Amino acid sequence: MSQVRPITQRVTRWGHWPKTAVAALVVGLVPAACGAEPPVQRADLSVQLVSAELPQRASTPTIASPYGAYLAGLVAKRDGDLESAADYMIQALRYDPDNPEVLLPALELAAATGRQDEAAGLAQRVIAVQPENPVANLVLTVEAARSGDMQRADEILAMQPERGINQILVPMLRAWVKTGEGDPDGGLERLSVLEGERGFAVLHGLHAALINEVGGRSETAATGYETLLSTTGRPTLRLTWLAGSFFERNGQQARALEVYRDFVSSNPGSDILAPMLENAEKGVTSPVEVTKATDGMAEVLFHIASLLSQESATDAALVHLYQAIALRPDFTLARVLLGEILQNQGRGFDAIAAYRSIPEDSLFGWVVRLRVAEELQALEEVDLALTELDDLAAERPGSYEPLFRKGNLLRAEERFEEAVVAYDDAVDRLSEILPRHWSLLYFRGIALERSDQWERAEADFLNALGLQPEQPYVMNYLAYSWVEKKKNLDEAEAMLVRAVKLRPRDGYIVDSLGWVYYRLGRYEEAVVQLEKAVELRPQDPVINDHLGDALWRVGRRIEARFQWNRSLSLDPEADQIPIIEKKIKDGMDALPQDI
């Protein structure tokens, strides 16, 4: 008998929807007033886990050898553990403080982990041996601006070679430095070098609007925002936020509402801007975010970090992001992006710490708490994750999202009956089921099928297809279930043929088609599809087992036993191990043909 594919394999890994990346949503800024720059109040950039219930990151061991500490740092960095890597490099530096081979990575790691005071001290030492080091000069520029010394910040920037990312970064920072010196005209002149740069027109326009607003030129700023809104096609979250809040504060409430509503209607799945729209409808004016040039510099660094993260240069993105937070410790959106990058790097503890540093009543408080629940699940803190989702569901009785995610979590834990209850509660919160809700019905259908409620499950799958015709993952699951139940085999075959055409590189869907052919007794066709599926998913024990069964039926018995042995080596479900072992020992001749 062949094993039935477990739920985590029958479904392409869709337990969670891809996060809406902040980096992909962002382009823009916000305004304020002009004048000489006061020092930025110093703040600890590190973020601490709020919940004492959470397991804490293990402390980094002390290594008595400089070479051992250095090598441990390299290994930790290779493994993506930047916090430990920074600890080890700083340990190594204590033994050999003047060694540039240790000094340079120590600076980069300190800057990439938000250790601003350490990074500032290291930057001074690096400049002595490598005057053009970009990380050192960036840190020193930020430190000068934080202390209110815009002249020194400008001197450092003026010496930087404008190549690579500096072609964008340096003129934008210098524009804000000039603005901070009380010369917004000079700032705009410096910014103008980007005006003709391909791909940076929106970024230039946003910063120009901001500088005009900081300089007290509200009419010019308004024109700039309107131009951007009309020429960007589909305005981003950041542009919408900044333009809308500007209109609110400048007596154009109706225009602000129009901007917010356009975004919400174009992005119906986004909860991020909804609180801002609600506040505007109540007449609550959004606060100013950028009140001085150091805030503008922070926005520049944030945008650069966003671009770098989109290009997967995440370590460099972290360096720029922490410098943005150093300039503006209350920069909520930067902390959201920080959490997002850390989450995507698999650094769950650090991601939760970043998200927990964001006030719950902020615009992003709701979204980041959903992400905290997601990371708690990844850290196997299931009870804490469920508590977080229950709290969110209670706080927003009109939102189905926390209950949807609760259902996904319970389904991933194979607590299928509880998952059905959560999904039912989520559906009950919908005033109307729209095409974008197909996934809710799909996932509920899976939980229903796994809890032996087939009639409801089948109805959900069919309704999901009604909302999203020819959705390949729904067709795959429904057709596979029909095959297992030996019903609607012709329809199942047609459905899977179509699903394979839509997702030819998905090994699970190709496997399902092969298994239909096997169930229909079309073993030669089954072998063709199952061999493709094994090529696409060579580490899957179920697909290898399926191929073994099909190979046996066409007389390729040595190859069949090879596939069964391979399936055993890939950690199949415990109840399948004796079945596979029996097939290896005795073959399948004594078994019914439809097994």
UniProtKB/TrEMBL annotation:
Keywords: Signal, TPR repeat
Lineage top rank: taxon: Bacteria
Record has Signal as a keyword: yes
A Pfam short name: TPR_6
TPR-type repeats, residues: 66-99, 507-540
Annotated signal peptide: 1-35
UniProt key word Ligase: no
Matching PANTHER family: CELL DIVISION CYCLE 16,23,27 (PTHR12558), CELL DIVISION CYCLE PROTEIN 27 HOMOLOG (PTHR12558:SF13)
The protein's name in its UniProt record: Tetratricopeptide repeat protein
